[in-house]
Specification:
2-enoyl-CoA Hydratase, Chain A, domain 1; alpha/beta; 290 residues; six-stranded mixed β-sheet; four-stranded mixed β-sheet
């Protein structure tokens, strides 16, 4: 069975997107030609649920309590096998083009096997409301996913941090260091999705400042932060409130709110992606990547 970084569960009209442990799936999928990691898996899952007419609300959360999504351990990047995957000077040849003919399809969106929908774009494009149930630490890519969701509810002690500029010094709730040992420009167009005072955004992104979900809620960046044992009841309340409203009106209102955000996000994503590639080359040329 192929290793998957993301799983989907359908619970009545609610689609749950469950993020598996990043470290475990990356290591397990290293030799799996059909491996689909978290980055690709989120986009594919949202695309599938977008066209499922039985689903009206989506909940994005970590599969394991205590962990929404945590970036690789610092020690992970001491392994040349994994470090070389990001080293542009040691990159292998690109994979062959997909075979001709219609691949498997998941619905009106068309073939899903060979497409890799962008996770953040899908969070904004999917007409159904998406609730981030932050049931633990969100470090790195996971913290960027949060800002693309429509509503954010977290357990108050969860740690939220961006990993690209943390120099591998971000410490999670278990006391483990996380992130790259080198610095890279934050990617995924995340800057356009952050709703904090500009000074706090820069502290978060340039210095990889670690905030708790409670601190995020106090800055009005999260809708709510609650004790871990209250998280389910609060999320259930949000789901019930959304289900009471006409889905067509919810969809149109979401699209209305996201129109200006999408324009800024697209421009920011392109620029941040280019800067990230430049950073990788410079780090590799300087010998920082081994």
């Amino acid at each position: 069975m192929a290793v998957r970084g993301v799983e989907i569960e359908r619970r009545g009209p609610v689609g749950w997107v469950l993020i598996n442990d990043y470290q475990a799936t990356v290591e397990a999928g290293a030799e799996d030609a059909d491996f689909i990691g978290v980055h690709e898996g989120i986009g594919l899952a949202l695309d599938e649920l977008r066209w499922d007419q039985s689903i009206r609300v989506v909940v994005l959360t970590g599969k394991n309590d205590g962990e929404f999504y945590r970036f690789s351990r610092r020690s992970h990047w001491d392994n040349p096998e994994f470090r070389d995957r990001l080293n542009p000077l040691k990159a292998s040849a690109p994979p062959p083009a997909p075979p001709a003919g219609p691949p498997e399809s998941t619905g009106p969106a068309g073939p899903a096997v060979h497409r890799r929908p962008d996770a953040h774009e899908m969070l904004m494009l999917i007409e159904k409301p998406v609730i981030a149930r932050v049931n633990g630490d969100a470090i790195g890519f996971g913290s960027s996913l949060i800002w693309g969701c429509d509503f954010i509810v977290g357990r108050e002690d969860a740690k939220i941090a961006w990993g690209h500029t943390g120099l591998g010094e971000i410490v999670d709730s278990d006391g483990e260091a996380r992130g790259f040992p080198w610095a890279m420009t934050p990617s995924y167009g995340m800057a356009s999705l952050l709703y904090m005072p500009p000074s706090k955004v820069k502290e978060f992104m340039i210095l990889s400042k670690v905030y708790t979900a409670r601190e995020m809620a106090d800055m009005n960046a999260f809708n709510a932060a609650v004790p871990a044992d209250e998280l389910d009841s609060v999320v259930d309340g949000w789901v019930e409130a959304l289900l009471r409203r006409p889905p067509a009106v919810v969809a149109r209102t979401k699209k209305l709110c996201n129109k200006p955000i999408m324009a800024v996000y697209t421009a920011t994503e392109d620029l941040s992606g280019a800067y990230t590639v430049l950073d990788l080359y410079q780090q590799a040329q300087a010998g920082a990547m081994g």
